Amino acid sequence: MKLTFASLGLIGVILMFAIYHSDVHAQVTPDGTLDTDVSGSNNYTITNGSRVGNNLFHSFSQFSVPSNGSVAFNNDADIQNIFSRVTGGNISHIDGAINAKGSANLFLLNPSGIIFGKDASLNIGGSFVATTANSIRFVEGAEFSAVNPTAKPLLTMTVPIGLQMGNYPASIQVQGTGHSLNTNNTFSPIIRNPSLTKLQVQSGKTLALVGGNITLDGATLSAATGHIELGSLGGAGLVSLVTTTQGYQLQYEQGQSFADIQLAQKSLLDVSGFNSGAVQIQGRNIEFTDGSLIFSQNYGTLPSGNINVQASEAIALIGTTPDAKIRSWIRSEALGAGSGANISIITPRLTLKEGSGINTLTYGTANSGNLQIKATDIELSGFSPLNPIGVTAITTSTYGKGSTGDILINGNNLLISGGASLSSVTFGSGSSGRVIIHNQNTTVMGENPSGLYSNISITKFADGNAQDLTLDTGTLQILNGGTIGSSAFLVGNGGNVQVKASEAIAISGSSSNNNSNINSSTIRLSPQLRQLFNLPDILTANAGNVNIHTPKLTLTDGGTVSVTSQGTGNAGNLQIIANQIQLKNQALIQAQTESGNGGDISLQVKDSLLMRDRSKITTTAGVTGNGGNININSPTIVGLENSDITANAVRGQGGNINITTQGIIGLEYASQLTSENNITASSEFGVNGTVQVNTIGVDPNSGLVALPTNFTNSSQKIASGCADTSGSSFVATGRGGIPQNPTQETRSDRTWSDIRNLAAFRKTPALQAQLSKSPPALLHATAWHRRPDGKVELIATQPRYMQPSLTCANVAAGSSK
């Protein structure tokens, strides 16, 4: 018979079905190494086993439970741990119920792999650990091994300390029909409808899956107020079991290799409840798709457990459910007095797309959890294709009296694009959290089709106060309408924005309704949005301050740095410290207020400030507000192509402008704005401000050498010589082409010649030699005597002849004799 590709494919399907059918319907069979007994068909009862203390050990050659079937461990009520191993080399297919008596913890160990079908369920009183490890290790070194069943096991009464993984751990799969979570709207808590299929342990217990690759396909794992553990290992090593009040927590060895974890088709890890539980996931690549999520909702009075997700290579959250109501999320909610879960993410690469999110929220009096991310590369992009308002987001939020948690980001590269958001938001009376980012490169750019622009922000829609936003980076780019800032829409105080870039900041371009900017603002929303957020028409909040510190700040194509108040509150102050500031093509540095006091602008520039093509530095006050002050300190200030420095007001007082510089090019003072480059401080109906320019030129004393204060008589430096009777003369005839200074070049000046007769001026005076006075000669003592007062006095005898000193006069007299 000739086989075709079609027939081979059909044969393959038949063989796979036969294998699957055989595994699923194989009886639960003991392997005879222990005293395990099994009875029944489809609904199996397991009795006896080997008991040591409060531990019960079972050993099976096969362990599979068919759909609508069950396995019941008929253990004594005082048993604390049931250890079950599968040694036959077949995968365990569990599509029915597993039951155990009392509060015993159940361990299922099968190195060949485990598959939980959509109808699998747990009815046990303790924790459940399913693993594809080779053995379970105990304190004194004993092992309960599934790969060496022929050796008589050394059974123990102690608690297990770890799972010994093999070189190639087999995978674990959990199948289901997807969760049934729902929500009324974006601002409401998630509604926890019961899942049709799920693996669930009792409240306060642990549900752990530890193996190779772990795949959840529409699965729901539930441990209300308990602990969910997923550990995906790629090689040999010991996974420690640390005993906690909620069962067990997994710990991993240094340098251990990991495998992949995938949550797809609305899979759910749920630890919600009164005093909600904890989740820990450890793997290589961890992916959430199709509205899959980790969820912690706390109704109680005690703090929630933490959510920890760690990957050795990457973590990705992508997409939403088909109805776009539930996104791929890692999410914690606080509904009562107990705080929400803290979320910790550690990975080399974190990617969020298509409306996914990492969020902590509070709806009650408790605070929402903190959110901490350590990742080399972080990318947030886009929105839900089914719901453009559902943006990709990392947020902490409050809708009640509780405050939001902090967002702490540490890494290398951060990219936010396509309308994505990294923010702390308050919709209630609680304050926002802090947003603190430390990395090397940050880019915020673009918007989504709904006009929502990419942002890093702190926002308050109610009467709670806003905390500070701090960005410490190497390079910062804000492009195509991206925003970094703090906004307030009601009362209270907006948050401060502090940006430090050790290399450079570039702000450029715009989106459909927003210029790229760094800002702190209080803004009046549209009537529709005020109604949506239940905001009054009167805006009284004060804007926060903006502080920027960088070697180079470049604003182009409408790029803006601003502090703004559109209500009765005050605009914040704006301070920039930089080596260079460049504004090009309608770039703007602005402090603006409507009816409060305008904020001040302070620019401390080490090298130069350049403004071109209708760029502006301005403090502006509308209606009754007073204009803010502008203080600029820069060695060089250049304003070209209708660029202005202004501090203007309408009815209030114009602000003051104080400039300290060595030189201004292009800019000139004007009482009103013109088409030229102006410096103005005016008020349309009020009092004009003042403009003071302190131009500091080059110090004329710099580089000069101080001359001596004691002058020397040049005549005393000329020695009297012996002259003949003809006399001598010195004639000065001008420069004669000789430079005044040896370092100067010789000019091409014509030498001046004096052709007058100088004979009349040549008179030889009579030679007059002066006899110099001889200094008194020292005499040697020749005797001594004692004076009447007792002192001894030396006596010298005057010599009879002393030779006079030789002078020109003596020489002349001697020659005449």
List the helices and strands and how they pair.
Elements: H1 5-25, E1 29-30, E2 36-39, E3 43-48, E4 50-52, E5 55-62, E6 70-73, E7 81-86, E8 92-94, E9 97-100, E10 105-109, E11 114-116, E12 121-123, E13 128-131, E14 135-138, E15 143-145, E16 160-165, E17 172-175, E18 199-200, E19 206-211, E20 214-217, E21 220-222, E22 227-232, E23 237-244, E24 247-252, E25 261-264, E26 268-270, E27 278-289, E28 293-298, E29 307-318, E30 329-334, E31 343-353, E32 357-362, E33 371-381, E34 383-384, E35 387-391, E36 393-398, E37 407-417, E38 421-426, E39 435-438, E40 441-445, E41 455-460, E42 469-479, E43 483-488, E44 497-508, E45 517-522, H2 527-532, E46 546-556, E47 560-565, E48 574-584, E49 588-593, E50 601-611, E51 616-621, E52 630-633, E53 636-639, E54 644-649, E55 657-661, E56 663-665, E57 668-669, E58 678-680, E59 691-695, E60 783-786, E61 792-795, H3 808-816
Parallel strand pairs: 3-6, 5-7, 6-9, 7-10, 8-11, 9-12, 10-13, 11-17, 13-19, 17-20, 18-21, 19-22, 20-25, 21-26, 22-27, 25-27, 26-28, 27-29, 28-30, 29-31, 30-32, 31-33, 32-36, 33-37, 36-38, 37-39, 37-40, 38-41, 39-42, 40-42, 41-43, 42-44, 43-45, 44-46, 45-47, 46-48, 47-49, 48-50, 49-51, 50-52, ...
Antiparallel strand pairs: 1-5, 2-3, 4-5, 14-15, 14-16, 16-23, 23-24, 34-35, 60-61
